[in-house]
DNA sequence: CATTAATCGAGACGGTACGTCTGGTCTTCCC
DNA sequence: GGGAAGACCAGACGTACCGTCTCGATTAATG
């Protein structure tokens, strides 16, 4: 169902090539897609979600908040979740560069605490939970969410283990996938299902449970 | 927000008292609440959710499908999720009576495989996922879901451990809560987040990971 | 295409039966159709046409001006012209009771001057011209306009002649249809086509041209 | 409102001068206005009106049908009625050269039957009726229509009378304006208002009614 | 036995948002 | 500088449901 491409046609180079203060102001033209409109929409969507909750996000509301015509949204996205998906991915670009302190447990702790905080407390996490919720009854979105966030995130999550393996911290048969699942799933469970807090000490206890070698 | 009581005033006794022909057909009267209308609504809600997805469930749709006036729904419920919540709880009443074979690992396996199947594959599971999804941006519903399902379910989930403890199968300091979380959270994670299947062998591997004594 | 009945179900008797200030205020109920909403819509349509011209009349505008939901308009009418048609007919109900002075020429003068004034100057005339204009490219409306206004109006227009015939003012072979056409068509021509004024003296000259016996 | 001149700068001679292969195809150029685009637009407007009715004519539709960009239309016309006005006037250039048989009644009959046919049956008549309709709520258009069509047409209509006067067929005080109105207004009335047919015999009966001397 | 109270099906009402469609403006590129 | 292309803002379209309200019918308990 999500057929439309969100940011087509416009090479970054072209954008950069436009000189001066750049980001040429335009109202309908042949620049191709308006970058101003695009970002205004994504920001408006984000803000509305946080301020008014998922049900409070409407295409009409986004359009009004972004100062944009509804059709400009429908031209590039198919639904409000589609917009929110893009807004979320944009948010995640600034995502954590995993730390690499030379000690696995320390790296894991740092990474997982950050992840838990993002999921449970940040605005970005609110967007993620809304999307995951929607994905429960929208398999297309589910697929997209897995492809564009969960898989890449998995790679980022595995990074500390890979570093540790290089350092010889792990015994050879150590199953990183299983270990990761042992760490992540309780965090997601608490955030999504039981609503229990995910404190720093809780994360530490999860890590302590791991048998590394 | 959910102020209304779903099934007030009418003691189970009264229902039981009217056996045989009973279940008086009535269109507005002083029998009190119409049991026929109530069950028709819950069934219609269930069916609509499965057939048309969460967004396809509307109060008007339920009313039409149940052959009931909209107001009859609004008299007893506050929203479509409120109806679905009741429908879900009704479904869960037939829930598993936990097996008690005398062996913890066997009991756990039986119980967890059944739970996973319910969550991932059954219509009831679809309703649950929809409710949990909605609960991500509806804290009132979240509370209700935890109180009325997740907590009671936790007790059912713990039952095998309690039996084992009585039998002396567990060392004294064994943390059943932690153990349960280790078992449950990967199942929920796979169902809700990663979409991976929860096979019987996977459940067995989870159990094997537990150190019981 | 115009399938909906505009004023169903509510017998005049019932309306009359409601005494005193009557016209029960209600917002959605089982009074049947709301007379208040109905008249508010027709008035709003009338006013908008006069103030903003035909193109300026929109269903949304009518709804807003009448303080009514769009759907309430769509429930009972099919299009803005349908609404305007009803508004026009309602206006015409208060139409002239033809005078009957005992003298044909005097009666005709009175009737035609009134008609010309209505067509050219009144708000009702503006609505009529708009409808007739629309009827030029909407044959369904054309039919309805002829059936519901032009034919009945013709009967009213003929009334003075009938009275005169009863009085023996006309020679037997006098063709009233032809005479009427001779009188009416220049009036419509001036109003619709040439834009020339239709003064009282002009009407008199038209009548003078007639050879009555 | 109608500020733009519709056919500037380009003499008919030039058009005629470019025969055969010519009619230079161009997509934006320095030839000045494209005659090809202009005629394509007027034809497309005409055709759309006949095929789809007045509401079915849109600037976008004309542009698409004429294979022309919207802006090319907006550059030279202000509205769809403006385009249709030009299309209509273009059509009327081929208008009847009034016959001059030497007999007034014969000339009138010939002329009026042609006029009635044009108004009621031809595509050009459809365009005229649409414009007249629009003129009912657009006084600017009304003025233009009267200036550019109705007045000139009146002169054409009077031509038979003038010839007759030269021939001495009319008594001196004969009021040609009044006579013309007597002839024309019933025709317009039938076409625009009552929808009755305007047959040849009907036109003859109108003429017979005239007292010429 | 009449009155009263509770509930039901029905459906009109004022609203919000949907997703689609035109209209008219503007900018760029091509000739 | 005309013309093609096409993104943009604006806003009306007709539809679907929302949640509220009132009706008239039905039935049971009350007095």
Structure description:
The structure is a homotetramer of 213-residue chains. With 213 residues, the first copy, chain A, is mostly helical. The first copy, chain A, has two domains: 35-79, Arc Repressor Mutant, subunit A (Orthogonal Bundle), CATH 1.10.10; 95-209, Tetracycline Repressor, domain 2. Chain A has helices at residues 12-17, 35-56, 59-66, 70-76, 80-93, 104-121, 123-135, 139-166, 176-194, 200-209. Residues 5-27 of chain A have low confidence and may be disordered. The interface between C and D is medium-sized, with 28 and 28 residues. Chain B binds a DNA duplex (31 and 31 nucleotides) through helix 3 and helix 4. Chains A, B, C, D: Residues 35-95 form the HTH tetR-type domain. Chains A, B, C, D: It holds the Pfam family TetR_C_11. Chains A, B, C, D: Residues 1-34 are annotated as: Disordered. Chains A, B, C, D: Residues 1-10 have a biased composition (Basic residues).
Determine the CATH topology of the largest domain in chain A. Answer: Tetracycline Repressor, domain 2
In the CATH hierarchy, what is the architecture of the largest domain in chain A at level 2?
Orthogonal Bundle
Instruction: State the helix count of chain A.
Output: 10
Question: What composes the largest sheet of chain A?
Answer: none
Instruction: Give the tally of β-strands of chain A.
Output: 0
Question: Secondary-structure element order of chain A, as H and E?
Answer: HHHHHHHHHH
- Return residue spans of chain A where pLDDT drops below 50 for at least 5 consecutive residues: 5-27
Overall morphology of chain A: elongated
Which CATH class of the largest domain in chain A applies here?
A: Mainly Alpha
What number of domains of chain A? 2
Structural class of chain A: mainly alpha
Average pLDDT confidence of chain A is 84
- Give the strand content of chain A: under 5%
CATH superfamily of the largest domain in chain A, called what? Tetracycline Repressor, domain 2
Biased composition (Basic and acidic residues) (chains A, B, C, D): 24-34
Protein name (chains A, B, C, D): Regulatory protein TetR
Biased composition (Basic residues) (chains A, B, C, D): 1-10
Keywords (chains A, B, C, D): DNA-binding, Plasmid, Transcription, Transcription regulation
């Amino acid at each position: 169902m999500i057929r439309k491409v969100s940011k087509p046609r416009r090479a970054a180079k072209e954008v950069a090539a436009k000189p001066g203060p750049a980001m040429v102001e335009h109202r309908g033209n042949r620049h191709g897609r308006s970058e101003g409109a695009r970002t205004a929409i994504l920001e408006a969507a984000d803000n509305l979600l946080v301020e008014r909750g998922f049900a409070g996000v409407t295409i009409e509301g986004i359009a009004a908040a972004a100062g944009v015509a509804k059709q400009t949204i429908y031209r590039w996205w198919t639904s409000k979740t589609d917009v929110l998906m893009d807004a979320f991915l944009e948010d995640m670009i600034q995502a954590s560069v995993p730390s690499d302190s030379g000690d696995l447990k320390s790296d894991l702790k740092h990474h997982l605490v950050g992840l838990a905080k993002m999921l449970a407390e940040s605005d970005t996490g609110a967007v993620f939970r809304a999307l995951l919720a929607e994905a429960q009854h929208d398999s297309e979105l589910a697929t997209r969410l897995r492809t564009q966030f969960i898989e890449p995130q998995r790679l980022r999550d595995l990074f500390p283990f890979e570093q540790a393996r290089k350092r010889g911290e792990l015994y050879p048969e150590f199953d990183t996938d299983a270990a990761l699942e042992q760490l992540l799933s309780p965090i997601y469970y608490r955030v999504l299902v039981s609503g229990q807090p995910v404190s720093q000490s809780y994360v530490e206890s999860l890590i302590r449970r791991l048998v590394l070698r």
